[in-house]
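re: ur question from the group chat, yeah i did fold both. here u go
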Amino acid sequence: MIALYARQSLDVKDSISIDVQLEKGKELVRKGENYRVYSDKGFSGKNTKRPDFQRMMDDVAQGRIEKIIVYRFDRFSRSLLDFCVTWEYLSKYGVEFISVNEKFDTSTPLGKAIMFILMIFAQMERETIAERVTDNYYERAKQGSWMGGPAPYGFEIDRLIIDGREVPTLRVIPDKMKIVKEIFQRYAQEADVSLGKISKDLNLRGIPGKKRSTWNNVSIARMLCNPLYVSADADIYAYYKTLGVTITNDVSEFDGLSAGMLVGKRKAADASGIRKRKSISQAKFSLANWPGNIDSKIWIRCQQRLAMNEQLKRVGKGKNTWLTGLIFCGYCNRRIVAYKDRNTLNQPIRLSCAGHRDGICDHVIRQQGFEVEDYVERKLINLLEECDQKSNSEVIIETVEISNQEKIELQQIEEKIQNFLKCIEAGQASDTTMKFINAEIEKLSKRQEELHQKIMEPVRQEIKFEKIDFKHLEFEDKKLVASTYIEAVKIFENYVEIIWKF
């Protein structure tokens, strides 16, 4: 069956009526061919949201239509992109398209060639639109506006008036932000606390999460790594710079008053609808238009602990012992594998030398995993108790702290020197400009040295160490503490040797 389609947005003197369009279309219908009329009166051609157009597309999908005839190309669509998308749909069902006025017929070689050219221009239009949307997205982020979606825990969405126009922002919910600060401080400052322990404590206190009533490791970790909470100062600028993240604001703007945003963290959805994570170096960091709430030192300390957890998961993936990744054969120095015998009721941890398994070690490890763990645990507890006794007295260390403005200056100096060096490497400097560049680099280097000297000046400060109750730590935290103090645990046939890092 043939479909005759007509559209008229306004019934005015110079417009072509629906009836005229249909009469012109009928001239191409051969005698004996069946046709059906589809018409949209009072609808624009700027998009395909037209009732009879959609009814026609439904009939195409049902296999009822073999050919569509329109009087003129713009009666079908005024958007090249919409037309090409619709043509792909028609091609899927083997439907031909004819425009009376333009003598356009996709059943002919010329029509197919023209269609191919139109598809190329439509693809260019798609890419232009995508670039425009992306540029607008990052420009909004650069201005500090909230980029959309549900507000994270501790915030609610609000509006700000900037330069006479409303822009989205986040506003603090005091009671919930108090919980946020508690989570950050505990994870940064309590050595024996874990993601699981924090979530368990919050659940026991009946504090609901953001999307669900309970907390878990994932929800806590996502909060801790989110820069929406941090007071972004020069340390935060340096942190993301080190990670290779593109920073849209100048370092001079990192005054510690505003929070931050990391945008462009995920790719577009693939064919399965999954949006995979990008490398963090592909993301962009922008200062937000709401204030930061978490001190940068606490926030960075949390990132360090999270990174250590990830490293431990990669190095010691085993779940049978918290010594995974640290235990080695004392004879061949190959790794010791810990496993459990599933047929045994109490499932003791058995240890096996990888060298013995591969036939290069003649010795047999006779210790059980629990025995080795108990021995190392006792030694670790003794070491930690010695540290606790020392920390009960006043401990004086040498540390230093320069102002945020000086940190900003140091970052600016390093970037200026790098820019001058790039200019020289690219061969863009003449003899005259080389003299200027050398003088500037010398001046910048002198100031850089002054700041570094200031950092090296000792400042005496009293600190207290948190007591670590190793025996009651969770599995992952035991791995963390063990890897902090122990270089390796060498296992021999009848005894164990601990090699300490200190």
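okk and heres the other one u asked abt
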Amino acid sequence: MSNTMAQPTLDEVQALEAQHVLQTYKRAPVVFVRGEGTRLFDSSGRSYLDFVSGIGVAVLGHGHHGLAAAITDQARTLIQTSNLYFHPLQGQLAQRLSALSGLERAFFCNSGAEAIEACLKFARRYWYSAGHPSRTDFVALEHGFSGRTMGALSVTGNAQYRDPFGPLVPGVTFVAPDDGDALAHAVTERTAAILVEPIQGEGGVRPLSGAFADAIEAACARTGALLIADEVQCGLGRTGEPFYFPLLGLTPDLVSVGKALGSGVPIGACLVAEHVAARVAPGDHGSTYGGNLLSTRAALYVLEQLTGSTAAVPYPAPGSAIGGLIAHVRDVADTFDQALTLLKTRHGVVASVRGAGVMRGLELTVDASPVVDNARAAGLLVNRTAERVVRMLPPLTVTTAEIAEAMDVLGEVLATVPAETTK
């Protein structure tokens, strides 16, 4: 739809969707029609400061001219040929992801949930090929969220998501993300893999502790269980690092990525260590659209912007020098953290500040829904997760001035929460 055409009203959009769209979403009452940088514009022309960025997807911001030029050029050239044939971009993207992650190979798909499905399949295939076909169990974490497809849902910790769709993949045990003893008990000689988000996103922006990461490594060393790091939300620059797992001392055998990888163009990837890849055979998995030319061209451009380089950037140690937007995130992270800490000091309704880089959560003493709604009414987009957490995932391009603007709005909203609700 051209920006010059008359836009449908909110009532018109809601009426049409109510009649024809499956009602699986409870949408906020706003229709967005255009974006520019960290701003979204609704059908009436009102501007909003976007600290959701499509749930951590639009890392380059909205309406990014360079990304638009890259995908326009590719769309005019060739979009899709299927994985029956070679094309020049999958290998280039896999090489760059391998350099950043330290895992040698990549399988391309269309989303983070599909990347998790691939991780689960490859973990089971690893043990099947090793002559242990009964080694099929998984250990995952309470509060974890890995997606809504059947396999990903099976390793998602919230029973409210799982229960209506059982029976799911059997053999999954959930442990608390701070209970190393429970983890040690749960991981056995039947465990194919442990699956963790280094920072739990939907679960309330909860970084794993170093002590728990040590327990994970110990359990893997004791039993040989593989480790799957779900970096769909926390990976690819959001924390000021290419990936968060090295900061915890984790050494995953498989890593899932999605969201940020295409900055809005659907693409996901399962990154696979060579010893796991060696036990995967042709035909074990596939995807019609996965790794098509349009999505891989977008992802190559995104990685160029994240690292500031058109070449593969070698696996960097945590905190080592890197360019591009990852360096920018490091530059603004302290400002973000200090501003959020100041909100906690000023507003008793804020119980804690969590996260890293530009992946942040304010845990409240009350339900976060009114805060999210009132912030939107004031022109700031944030979202609610884990009931009491205000989650913020702005584009990686966010400036210190935009952070200050967002914190001013959020402070005004928090000040309106009645004092008695904080008890």
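fwiw on the second one: The chain has two domains: 10-53+323-422, 67-307. The chain has a mean pLDDT of 95. idk if thats what u expected
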